Amino acid sequence: MTEIDGRRLRGAASRRVVLANAVDIASVEGLDGLSIGRLATAARVSKSGVATLFGTKERLQLATVEAASQRFRETVLEPARARPRGIRRIVALLDAWIAYSRDRVFPGGCFFNTAVADFDAKPGPVRDAIADALESWNGYLRFSLGYAVELGELDADADAAQLAFEFTALLESANSRSVMTGSNEPYRLARRALVSRLLAVGADLDVLRPLAEHGD
């Protein structure tokens, strides 16, 4: 039994190492750029070891999407949840998302921007997993905005779904432009636009200062 448990522990550790490399590679080269040989070299494990862990390329891609989702949750969502629900949590979410992209938590910027470019027109389980991850983020942002409306921190007629769409578009554009140019200026422009939009729907400027005054 001890020997079996030891093998399981080693297998779980190998899986974590391989997936850590997989998400980094896919953020730059896309999920279609993943291969057993490429990962074996990057993770310094055998090809047969990678094949045993995942079996097929599709299973590897699905596991990579889930690993990327977990890294995103740990980097963006969980720290923001320490803030009170409402506008303060929204500010924390937006600020954390910008930091996640700016600090290259994934070497290629936002993992999901790259994944969408690979799979937006390719139906199947991998596309569905990417779509679910994106909807999870968008839905949480939408819910948080709706809660701020309910609390009276945003105007009663503010459209949470519309705001979530606009904010996501701004963040994704800032990520793409920064990755392309190597400049942080897109993040500063995104912050300015996010603050302006929140002010337009009744947010308190003092609460927005952590988002507005970050130097990037």
Task: Label this structure with key terms.
76% helix, 216 residues, 10 helices, mainly alpha, Tetracycline Repressor, domain 2, elongated
pLDDT < 50 stretches: none
What's the number of structural domains? 1
What percent strand?
Answer: under 5%
What global shape is seen?
Answer: elongated
- C-alpha Rg, in Å? 19 Å
Supply the number of helical segments.
10
- What is the total tally of β strands? 0
Helicity, as a percent range: over 70%
**Overall residue-averaged pLDDT value:** 90
Order of helices and strands: HHHHHHHHHH
CATH superfamily: Tetracycline Repressor, domain 2
Question: Under the CATH scheme, which class?
Answer: Mainly Alpha
**Largest sheet composition:** none
Could you tell me how far the N terminus lies from the C terminus, measured between alpha carbons in angstroms? 52 Å
What does this structure look like?
- The structure is a single chain.
- This protein is mainly alpha-helical and 216 residues long.
- It has a single domain, classed as Tetracycline Repressor, domain 2 (Orthogonal Bundle).
- 76% of the residues lie in helices and 0% in strands.
- It contains ten helices and no strands.
- The chain has helices spanning 2-29, 36-43, 47-54, 57-80, 87-102, 111-119, 125-150, 160-181, 185-200, 205-212.
- The longest helix is centred in the N-terminal third of the chain and has 28 residues, at 2-29.
- It is elongated, with a radius of gyration of 19 Å.
- The model has no long low-confidence stretch (mean pLDDT 90).
